[in-house]
Amino acid sequence: MLSDLKNKNILVTGASGFIGTHFIEYLLAHQVNVIAYSRQKRTSKHARLQWIQDFTALAQLQLDFVVNLAGESIGEGRWTDVRKQKLIQSRVRTTQQLYQALSQYDLRPQCIVSGSAIGYYGIDPQQKWLNDCDESSVPQAIFMSEMCQQWEAEALRHTEQNTKIMRLGVVFGQGGGILPQMLLPIKIGLIGRIGSGRQPMTWVHVDDVIQAILFLFQSQSTHTVYNVVAPDHIDQMQFVRVAAKILKRKPFLPLPSIVMRMLMGEQAQLVLNGQYVQPKALLAEGFDFQYTDLQSALRQIIQHSTN
Fold it and tell me: Looking at the domain assignment, is residue 58 inside a domain?
């Protein structure tokens, strides 16, 4: 696939984010031309990287593929009503503007991979989490689910474009993302179990995210929605045990659910609730994950970070 992408033009929105940064570095290393969209003004001396702040710049360009990752970080800032609207609009509005520009300039990329999250599936109000979700599972009436529903609907509304939706789990990798925050209390030997510790931890290595995007570029399937998550089935306490073993630490203090809710309000759902999700569609189409278990993924990331 990469040989087919050499000298192709790929537009990446949300290019300055964690996944976008990793994806662009990978593309540039393999001689792919990148048009990187960011709301912040950026420049690059790399011959194959062009930063844009406005989709009007697409009028002079040819696009072969698009990866739509735009959206403010869900974990930064308390979920006030104003914050919720910003989170929704940063995704829905940018997606809307992207497709409007593609239509206006008559651009027909071979494939558009548009982001979403497994938060689409919501939580079970009675059990605090959902089991065995796949791409056919229904959403719930909570904020994360409603945000993802709106985000996906905007992308899939444009039926003239070949759009694939990727619902991401928690993405682990070097150089950023949420993992450093998750590892810090373990590194200092402090916090272990959070709440019951039985809440699902559905994750994916950033390297597998990159390969999944490339896989979807060439997919001939009529399927439109894909869970991009490792085929693993662990909970929060299992994550702590694996990370503590690799880090050679012994975290001992539990953090009660009530404390998390006092600190984070509704946003505590990100830590206390969750979904067990399987990448059913990807596996059915023959995608091979490089990191199928948490221990191999964390060991690679932690060891690479300390070298």
Answer: yes
Would you put residue 4 in left (φ > 0), alpha (ψ -120 to 50) or beta?
alpha
Residue 35 dihedral angles phi and psi, to the nearest 5°: -105, 115
Condensed to tens digits (0 to 9), the pLDDT of residues 36-60 reads: 999 888 888 898 999 999 999 999 8
- Does the reported pTM lie above 0.90? yes
d(CA 15, CA 148): 19
CA distance 270 to 119: 9
On whether residue 253 sits in a domain, the answer given is no
Q: How far apart are CA 199 and CA 272, in angstroms?
A: 6
In a domain, 171, yes or no: yes
Name 211's Cβ contacts closer than 8 Å, sequence gap at least 6.
287, 290
Task: Give the span between the Cα atoms of 48 and 46, in whole angstroms.
Answer: 6
Q: Give me the domain span that covers residue 153.
A: 2-177+203-229+276-290
Give pLDDT tens digits for 137-180. 999 888 999 999 999 999 999 988 999 999 999 999 998 888 98
Q: Let me know if 99 is exposed, middle or buried by CB neighbors in 10 A (0-12, 13-18, 19+).
A: buried
User: What total number of domains does the chain contain?
Assistant: 1
Q: Of the candidates 230, 229, 249, 232, which has an alpha carbon nearest to the alpha carbon of residue 240?
A: 249
| 65 token code pair | 């593929």
CATH code at 64?
3.40.50.720
CA distance 266 to 54: 34
Q: Return the number of other C-beta atoms located less than 10 Å from residue 233's C-beta.
A: 16
